């Protein structure tokens, strides 16, 4: 029964991923790249082997990451893997997300659990949150004018308070 539930969840997750355009999927991955690299650093070789099994990365990349993992460490191998994924095909990006979802118990991270559950429950809305975080709230032109007036008024009012704070 747990397998059916997991397979159902994976099917739902795939549906969410299919609902995102290439650009949206890449933007999501690029925005979360640092967190994903941290998660992947727990076992980058397993992750790249899973992607190789899905035929979305080459044997050469797998061997190169194995060497990097042994010589430099798993963090660097994970960074290189994420760099490769972000710069490659949609299948590669989707393969990464599907593998992380399917193997989420192997990669014990509260951040990964939170990201995957938010993506599964909110879908495209997570992209709106990313836009707000990176671009801020986009105000209509007439409200921008009031915003700037209010901001300058606050700065004028608070400026006299600055010397008093430094004396304390």
From TrEMBL:
Name of this protein: NACHT, LRR and PYD domains-containing protein 3-like protein
């Amino acid at each position: 029964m747990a397998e059916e539930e997991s397979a159902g969840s994976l099917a739902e997750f795939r549906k969410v991923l299919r609902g995102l355009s290439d650009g949206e999927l890449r933007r999501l991955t690029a925005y979360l790249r640092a967190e994903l690299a941290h998660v992947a650093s727990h076992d980058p070789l397993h992750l790249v082997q899973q992607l190789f099994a899905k035929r979305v990365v080459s044997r050469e990349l797998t061997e190169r990451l194995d060497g990097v993992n042994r010589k430099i460490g798993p963090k660097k191998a994970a960074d290189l893997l994420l760099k490769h994924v972000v710069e490659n095909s949609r299948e590669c990006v989707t393969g990464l997300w599907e593998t992380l979802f399917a193997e989420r118990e192997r990669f014990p991270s509260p951040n990964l659990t939170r990201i995957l559950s938010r993506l599964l429950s909110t879908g495209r809305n997570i992209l709106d949150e990313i836009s707000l975080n990176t671009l801020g709230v986009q105000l209509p032109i007439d409200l921008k004018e009031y915003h700037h007036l209010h901001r300058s008024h606050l700065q004028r009012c608070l400026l006299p308070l600055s010397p008093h704070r430094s004396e304390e």
